[in-house]
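cron nightly-structures :: item 1 of 1
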Amino acid sequence: MIQAVLFDMDGVLVDSEHQMCLAAIQMFKELDVTVLPEDFLPFVGTGENRYLGGVAEKYGIHLNIDAAKFRTYTIYAEIVHGWLEPLAGVHQFIARCREKGIKTAIATSADLMKMEINLREIGLPVETFNATVNGLEVVHKKPSPEIYLTTARKIGVEPSCCLVVEDAINGVQAAKDAGMYCLALTTSFNAQQLKQADWICKDLSEALHLFSIWENYIPLQSKYF
C-alpha cells in the first residue's frame, strides 16, 4: 500500500536541466574556462557539487565549490525567472495524492537555494509538501539511497510503503536500493535505460492512470504506459 510519494525535482516536477547547464557554462566562462553541454551529462542527478565539480575535474581546474555553486545559482535564478513551468501533470498528480490521503515529499540532490527557486517559479511552495530534503541534508548523493531513506524517516513512512518518482538512472537505483517502489519518467533518459523502475511513463499526466491500478491491485502486464 503506497502511503507516500517522494518526488525528485529536476526532470520530474520541472525541466530545468537546460537552464542549469547554461548557468554552469556561464559560470565557467567567468573563470575563463570553456566547457560544453555534454560535459555535464554524466553528472545529471548527482547534485551540484558533483555536477560542477566533475566538469572541473575533467578540465583539470580547482574549483571553490561553494562560491561556484552560489554564482551558478544566481545566474540560474536570473535565467529562469518568469519562464520556468511545471512539467505536464505535476499539479494534478500532487492534487490526486492529497485526495487519496497520500503524503508527499521532495527529495532532491539539488541544494536548498535551487530547490526553493524551482518550487517558487512553478507555483509549488515548500509548504505544499509534508517534507523536503535537499542535497545539503545528506552525505551520500544518489545513487546512494540515503536521501530517500532520510525522507521516509522525516515523514514517518516505512520505505516499503513509499513510491519514488524519478527521471534519472542514478535516482532509480537509489529508490530501489532504498527498498521503495519507483515510477520513472522518460523526461531525461529512455525507457530501456530506466528499466529497473517498477513503472515507466512519459510524464506525470500519463502517470495519473496508475492511481486506479494501485488502488485496485490490478497486476500489470507491462510496466510501460
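cron nightly-structures :: done
The first helix runs from residue 17 to 30.
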